DNA sequence: TTAGGGTTAG
């Protein structure tokens, strides 16, 4: 590449002129063509307005007319058409039209070459783009900034980001003046290749070379940094901008504020909000919505409500996003009444709810087992031509499954397919879980098979639910087969996977196998549930020594026992007739602030009745 | 007549 670009030099400029002069054919033809109706037609068809909404078929037809008309229309007309086709992203077609032109003896000019180089780049055919650049330069055309920016874009989107950086340096050395397009293209490429620090360094390098980056360039870097959560670096850039007397605008401030808030620096976000006000930058509905939404999600309702009244007072009107964000936050915190009030308020303000609004409300109704209202909301949105997407369906399906109405969930699943929506991993996982809970083991397994055959990849949660369902329904053998295939696959098993299998084995009486699994957790850390399950497995087999040993081990491994750990052990020791050990455990449990659970109370009551225990035990428990 | 990516919120 560098060799090709290295030949770009001043001497080309001379030849450039010569070639343009030496290309009188198109000029002459064009002059003559004023008399020809067909060429006039073409020219009319190529007017800017027509080109804007030109259809692909018309473009091809037009090209056919153009190559048939004699004399040929000028190269400018061809360039306009090629450009229009390139805008339709039909890059291959542009290339083939270019080839046809050459076959017909219609010479390309600088613009044609630029368009074609761009097309090769967009098709990731870097070598062909470079070859064409070489050819073009041999003919004496000096690439201009647009040609080089296209090439730069090609490098950025191909895997040649270091060549992209080098190209910009070389452009500067050769006297080209990189423009905003050059920089935003390179910056975008750097972020695409995870080179955030190089993007920041680029800004410094530009300044060093006496090339002051503009607002757009800064904006691109700030945006890229914020998307990665590098808010410190973004704030540094804001300071740099200020030092360079480039005033950040509301978009840049909103970007940083949003990012600060999302990464849990909400107070810094609020401070920056004040700072932008002090600098005379007026926040807009987006600045407010983003802050309000984050604050609500963190439960900072009073701050959020202060901002809301603030924005209304300043006539910055909340829009559908503001309302939806609020509704969603209220719903997630279980405040459905408030969410419904907000919904009424937005209707009163003639703000149309959108798919987010409806989906949040449907979620709210589902969370409160108000399935009929959820369904009603779902039908309402459709009646308003706001069509549910896979997320909306998943929400409602989950609601029905949780309410043990898996049949209706399945019905929705079929309905979404009819609407042309494809279920995703969440859809299938939810339904598989619902089917297992409803005891429909066969259907659950069938759905799992369907999901695989439809190319929807099960994730670790899908597998965990499958394992759990199989174990719950006494299909440990089948679960073990699945588990082994998971171990062999690249999938990372989590502690839930192990907990499910350990529990399944213990419940099936296979404590030895469960213990084997427990001692062979592949780099996964046991949690309190893992210990509880194993301890309970030992207790079930009256292996109290093992259970006690594990209880000690879990404390040594800094896994805090919970109410379940204590209750399991207490019951086991009571059944074993060891009153002393039980009494000690009860004391220890109480000192941790836990109490006896229903099973423990039940057992003690029974033992009181048949005289195995005296009343002091009951007093100890409560 | 040629190029980039947008500009931010649920």
Automatic annotation (TrEMBL):
Which GO biological process annotations does it have?
mitochondrion organization; RNA processing
A molecular function GO annotation: mRNA binding
Q: Where are the PPR repeats?
A: 109-143, 144-178, 179-213, 214-248, 249-283, 284-318, 319-353, 354-388, 389-423, 424-458, 459-493, 494-524, 527-561, 562-596
Q: Which GO terms describe its cellular component?
A: mitochondrion
Record's keyword terms, sorted: Repeat
Pfam families for this protein: PPR_1 (PF12854), PPR_2 (PF13041)
Question: What family is this protein classified in?
Answer: Belongs to the PPR family. P subfamily.
What is the designated name of this protein? Pentatricopeptide repeat
Per the UniProt record, the lineage of the source organism begins with: Eukaryota, Viridiplantae, Streptophyta, Embryophyta, Tracheophyta
